[in-house]
Amino acid sequence: MDWLFTFPQIDPAHLLSVKRFIDGSLKALTRSYGTAIEDFFYPLQRVLIFFEKMMTGAPWLVVIAVMAGFAWLASRRWQVAVGVIVTLAMIGLLGLWKDAMTTISLVFTATIFSIAIGIPLGIAMNRYSRVGKAMQAILDVMQTMPPFVYLIPVVMLLGIGRVPGFIAVVIYSVPPIIRLTDLGIRLVDKEVLEAADAFGCSSSQKLWKVQMPLAIPTIMAGINQTIMMALGMVVIASMIGVQGLGLNVLQAIANQYFTQGIFSGFAIVGIAIIFDRTSQAYGNRLQKHRGASHD
Amino acid sequence: MTDQQTAIEIRSLYKIFGSNPKAWVEQVRNGMSKAELAEKHSHILGLNDISISMPASKIQVIMGLSGSGKSTLIRHINRLIEPTSGAITIGGRDVLAMTEAEQREFRRSGTAMVFQRFALLPHRSVLDNVTFGLEVRGVGAAKARDAAMRWIERVGLKGFENRYPTELSGGMQQRVGLARALSNDTAILLMDEAYSALDPLIRTDMQTMLLELQKELKKTIVFITHDLDEALRLGDGIVILRDGSIIQQGSGQDILLRPADDYIRRFVQDVNRGRFIKVDSLMEPVTAAPDDSLPRFASGMALEDAVKRFSGSDSPAGLVVDDTGKPMGQVTLRRIMEAL
Ligand SMILES: Nc1ncnc2c1ncn2[C@@H]1O[C@H](COP(=O)(O)OP(=O)(O)OP(=O)(O)O)[C@@H](O)[C@H]1O
Ligand SMILES: [Mg+2]
Prior knowledge:
The complex is a heterodimer. Chain A is an all-alpha fold. Chain A has a single domain (about 10-295), classed as MetI-like fold (Orthogonal Bundle). Chain A is about 85% helix and about 0% strand. By secondary structure, chain B is an alpha/beta fold. Chain B contains 16 helices and 13 strands. A six-stranded mixed sheet of chain B has the order 6-7-8-3-9-10, sandwiched between helices. Classes of the chains: A mainly alpha, B alpha/beta. Magnesium ion binds near residues 70 and 71 of chain B.
């Protein structure tokens, strides 16, 4: 009866050699192309450093003013701007200013990259049904894969540091924007599309004059989710060398610094609320005249 | 454009929806019914042997109950729907032979369309909705704006150009839809139940406006409705569809006085005949001595008005006269009473 209780697995020796082979090839790949890969990502590294320096180096008053101004422009509501000021002030008072700025700059750049990658992919997914089906499957896998797993290949190829952390964050947070871009385009009223055809729109005119503008509220919801996921990934990415609030949390876990962990955790929540409220208010403002568009 | 260019000719048009429509055209030609095609072969017969000549610069009404194929038919004119078989020419030009680019050009500057549920762009102001067609055509912003403002004023929306569609009532939204179509300055205007979603009073206003505009614009208008009053009021010619087939086509007078079958008879029985039938339709050659005491009716007068004239005289007949006062024929009170 022994065979019933131990699964008849592939011979461990075989498995081991397969694993060794794959890992070995990956390592060989990094060994021979390591510098090429690093060179390739060098511009990205410059960009990341630039943004981080900008956020951490700027006078705190300016940072608060700019972020509050940004929030007001997006939402047109003073409550949101005041919320931003209060949250940032509290983060600063708790001594987490520099870490928070590092985290914000990472989330900000990751979001910009996700938008730049995600929207075109979402459009492609909508346009070409084959791409759409393939992408759907990939996104399903990506969204259920435990985020830690993303770290492994990234680390093997790029080692530890800012760039691999950033890439892991982007990979983890890009799916919602792809999906919601596709969804937003699909939700556009069929009659309005027919009108666009009847007036002789080319397919790119239809996309840019009708589909994309009408999809923007949905895309904004995707951007909002992307930001939230990027913030969530920040803690995990600190395991591979990303600085900022995530690293504080990681250290707190390792050393049982309860209060440090809680403070940093709340700082992340505060930043999440800032981004969430601002981007949602912007989305709602865009939606003002569109009550009847999706009925 | 000359009249010759904008007459619409539709010849033996068939449209079958389904996975392999071409395979069933022959059977439908040989008399397979819509029900049989649907039940046994799960294809839907949209249009069955449609032939219509729509003269240029006239309003052609297409009428029928829901599902009779009206929308399908009108969408063939700008080829939003591809026919399964048949021919469509517009001003002698074969619509089905157009390449994709030609077809786009044709939709931009040859036809304009107004939709039942307006189909406005909710993210654009009234002004930007009206300039949409011109923008698609590549007309410069300033020029498009001028044209749009003219049409916004014509349809009575002056002062609303910066509002958004959701801020307007249904009637006003459809005025925007009409202005958007008119600003494209096309010879053909396609209106798919453009007024069906509007309240009766607003609907009458919109009909009046269309008739007034048409006096001046002389477009070739295809107007779809399921309302006979509307059809009689607007249509120079009327086509009645059922289950994708034409049951009768002719003038409103033809349809009121000589309905082709019971289906149409049921359609026309509730109509106020006195208002729509004209004395001309009941005219006979003059037999009574053309005497000054006879009542005189201007050509085109409705029966209900003619009857009122009779009540002031004891003569059993009256003369129908043209604009110059010359008698064209006579009409007797008895025939009028029969027709009503
Ligand atoms: N894309 C399609 N696929 C399958 N069947 C269709 C399609 N479009 C229309 N039909 C069918 O063709 C027939 C005619 O439809 P159509 O929309 O032209 O009717 P209609 O006269 O405009 O009706 P309504 O007054 O409801 O607008 C109907 O039986 C409809 O179900
Ligand atoms: Mg219809």
